[in-house]
Amino acid sequence: MIWNENAECMSAEEMEEIQLKKLQEVVRRAYLNVPYYQKRLKKEGLAPEDIQTIQDIEKLPFTTKSDLRDAYPFGMFAVPSEDIVEVHTSSGTTGKPTVSGYTERDLDIWGEVMARALTMAGATKHDLIQNCYGYGLFTGGLGVHYGTQKVGATVIPISAGNTRRQIEILQDFGSTILTCTPSYALYLAEVLEEQGIKNCDLKLKAGVFGAEMWTEEMREEIEKRLNLSALNIYGLTEIIGPGVAQECIQKTGLHIFEDHFYPEIIDPKTHQKLPNGERGELVLTTLTREGMPILRFRTRDVTTLHREKCECGRTLVKMDRITGRSDDMLKIRGVIVFPSQIERALLRIPDLEPHYQIIITRPRQLDELEVRVETSPALFSDEVKHVEEVKRKIEMQIHDEIGLRVNVNLVEPQSLPRSEGKAVRVIDNRHLGEG
Amino acid sequence: MKLKQISIFLENRKGRLWKALNVLSDADINIRALSIADTSEFGILRMIVPDPEKAKEILEMNNFIVKVNEVIVVEVPDKPGGLEGILGFLNSSDINVEYLYAFVEKNRDEAIVVIRTDDVDAGIEALEAGNVIMLSAEEVYTL
Question: In which domain, by residue range, is A111 found?
């Protein structure tokens, strides 16, 4: 099933024509209504009329996360406040979050792209969608919710957490589609097995999993243990939320809804545009957003675009699953963490040398964060309780900074690798970037 | 009658205790008494050595974190209730014992025990009042 055949199966020429028209409109709207964009474009000597072909997009400046943060809270909105009907924020913990504002039409578009995504995963009005993405400022919960309603399926707005209840509803309601993070799906599988519940007794047929990086190995594992098709969804709050791209049943990449979100791949160092098939940083432009149009947003997510014909019949460009970041951002239990935040927390503790190492593991499907810190003479004592107090103090400082519980391990001085060029600050043992 | 003890931070990693002892051995430093406090994540090696400052220097040169602090060394009658009696003096003076450990047997009639109280001076005072025999550095090192 294809939700919107006109939009999802058109020829490349048709698509480009539509994209150009929408790009011209969105650049004009951004220029006229967002002082930030007017200033940026003027600085580049650009006017909206300079967009004559789709390739002219390359003339436009990039928008970064820090540009959005500087505009906190509503500086990037392109419509009067009475036209904004909903706001969401990113999960970032570095300083202020970024805010996304939606008009009624934006919500309608969000529902449309999510309806396409869910349909791609096999959803029809007969399905029961157990939506375990968090409801609230996070876009995951409501994004799936709007899509489900558009499709006419039944949404179970259970939100995140409360695993016992999730399992009870999976069994009693007979949910057919599961939406959550892939690591939570694995966790659910584990708890189901512990409780002796067989996957053949569940009615699940598909899962729409996203909001974190995962691998082909994880897909196989989830599919085997939950007896469903595990499909990848991609999106980000700055652009709209989930529903920027979705994997079809072919499982050979995610179709980008490029009539709404224009993708480019750039070399993160030279900022040069890369051709299809080459790996680089994904840059997205919202072609239709009213509340908050974003031009050339640097997602920092690393992927590749492909335009080969897809067996599913859709002509939409496909992106590979995200295999990394072009910056050092980490996503731990769904929370964005930068190593610099941990460094900042350590620097607040007197007498502590900021030599540290971050080790991320996923022992029981949930991320664990360990921070190794070199002990200093001033912090050391002959008494265990004093050393443990120091450890707790460091854990608390890091918790205050990133909002996550961590396990601090004190190590001997000079035992952590020193920066030879770039220090090995992060050891990610989740192996997410190899899928 | 205080005595200097050295404490060494040991990361919970294979070979670290050996390395610390190896450094001391190479420097020809004899260990008179030793104890290890171990937690699941790190250890603290505490020792009485004849020249604590020299031991500290040599360990620090090898990147160990070392702390020198004062402890009390007492003679304990080698009979049932010997240590109990001594701790009783501290207890009745409301002095907290952080840890204690014993010297290796040295053909004496008394056992020798290292005591670390939260307040070392107050500990000495209470033990003196109880006529407990405390050993000086000189006595300890020539045992």
Answer: 5-327
Helical ranges in A275-362 per DSSP H: 339-347
The closest alpha carbon to A430, from A323, A352, A357, belongs to: A323
Taking the model in full, what pTM does it have? 0.74
- The complex's ipTM? 0.86
One DSSP character per residue, A110-173 reads HHHHHHHHHHHTT--TT-EEEE-SPPSSSHHHHHHHHHHHHHTPEEE---S--HHHHHHHIIII
Quote the minimal CA–CA distance from A414 to chain B in Å.
Answer: 7
Q: Is A410 on the interface with B (CB under 8 A)?
A: yes
Residue whose structure tokens are 């603290």 = B44
3-state helix, strand, coil in chain B (%, to 5): 35, 35, 30
**Amino acid in the structure at residue B7:** S
In this structure, are B87 and B50 located in the same domain?
no
A219 vs A136: CA distance, rounded Å: 27
- Structure confidence at residue B85 as a pLDDT band (50, 70, 90): very high
The answer on A355 and A310 residing in a single domain is no
Asked if the bond preceding A73 is cis, omega within 30° of 0, the reply is yes
A412 and B64 in contact by Cβ < 8 A?
yes
CATH number of the CATH domain containing B95: 3.30.2130.10
Do B78 and B124 lie in one domain? The reply is yes
Element (H, E) at A390: helix A384-402
Structural domain span for residue B18? 2-68
Best B12, B13, B41, B45 member to test A by mutation, with max A CBs in 10 Å, is: B41
Lowest-confidence range among A87-91, A241-245, B102-106?
Answer: B102-106
Could you tell me if A161 and A90 lie in one domain?
yes
First to last CA, chain B: 16
pLDDT of A266 above 80 = yes
